[in-house]
Amino acid sequence: MTIKVALAGAGAFGIKHLDGIKNIPDVEVISLISRELDKTREVAAKYGIPHVTTDLADSLAIQELDAVILCTPTQMHASQSIACLEAGKHVQVEIPLCDVYKDGQAVAALQKQTGKVAMVGHTRRFNPSHQYVHKKIKAGEFNIQQMDVQTYFFRRTNMNALGQPRSWTDHLLWHHAAHTVDLFAYQCGSPIVKANAIQGPIHPVLGIAMDMSIQLKAANGAICTLSLSFNNDGPLGTFFRYIGDTATYIARYDDLFNGKDEKIDVSQVDVSMNGIELQDREFFAAIREGREPNSSVQQVLDCYRVLHDLERQLEAA
């Protein structure tokens, strides 16, 4: 059976999904949804996608459609996830699930009601570098004592990952911190019981904090320190240091190093070195097998509770 998919959002991340899906058998993207029709047609032509629209409802009306991948602006994630589930479609939504906690709770409640696969793009769970560490933890060979994480970008103007102007504003807390908050709890196998945050000045045009610092503690005693910035004019991206009882690991996206900066071969950890492709493979496998996926809405919901608590803390400061 071929799984027929619609992809919403033909920007930088949507294209990463299209490139990943090319490597996955028996999956066909039959509809592409995005804001600007001409650009959307251009991307659709490149990837051989027959249907193009600017309205998600047009795609949801396609009877043979099985699933939707949402790579749309953060502010639309929860409502569009709900629309997909109400239309009887499986859905994978890019991180974050929501930027208001109760909206995420509504998606989780509807998923339980419909029984459809609903998954969030918490890619760090799938990167081979982090999978390698996860397998060490599962085997009882490594326990996290501290994670030290830096998430650094240079975004003093509102640009996307391709350097193109964005139609929406990104957020350090609800988007970029979500990756680490979820990964920390997932790798520890223990819920976050304490969280603190401070932030720098609010940008006069973008209306967001450009610098932020977060501390987390898991129930098992492990701690995490997360530094985030949109002001960093230097090496860009997220850098993870795992400090444990038996080793130190440094993860830079799909690459992994030990504490002496010697590269660890993670090429055999999974069938691909591409975290987005592995995330999509899990989504489609869960649909075929009728099971809950890794990074399901239910599994990641607690991350958004923590973000909600941090937001309230920052607003009260």
Which parts are unreliable, with pLDDT below 50 for 5 consecutive residues or more? none
Question: Strand content of the residues, in percent?
Answer: 25-35%
Radius of gyration equals 19 Å
Distance between the termini: 54 Å
The number of E-state strands comes to: 14
Order of helices and strands: EHEHEHEHEHEHEHEEEEEEEHH
Describe the main β-sheet briefly: 8 strands, mixed
What is the percent of helical residues? 25-40%
Shape verdict: globular
Structural class: alpha/beta
What is the mean predicted local confidence, pLDDT? Answer: 95
Q: What is the spatial order of strands in the main beta sheet? A: 8-9-10-7-11-12-13-14
The helix count comes to 9
Structure, explained:
With 317 residues, the chain is an alpha/beta fold. Helices cover 36% and strands 25% of the residues. It has helices spanning 12-21, 37-47, 56-60, 77-86, 101-114, 128-138, 172-188, 275-289, 297-316, and strands at residues 3-8, 27-33, 51-53, 67-70, 90-94, 118-121, 144-152, 192-199, 211-218, 223-229, 237-244, 248-252, 255-258, 263-264. The strands form two sheets. An eight-stranded mixed β-sheet has the order 8-9-10-7-11-12-13-14, with helices on one face. It has a six-stranded parallel β-sheet with strand order 3-2-1-4-5-6, with helices on both faces. α5 (101-114) packs antiparallel against α9. The chain is globular, with a radius of gyration of 19 Å.
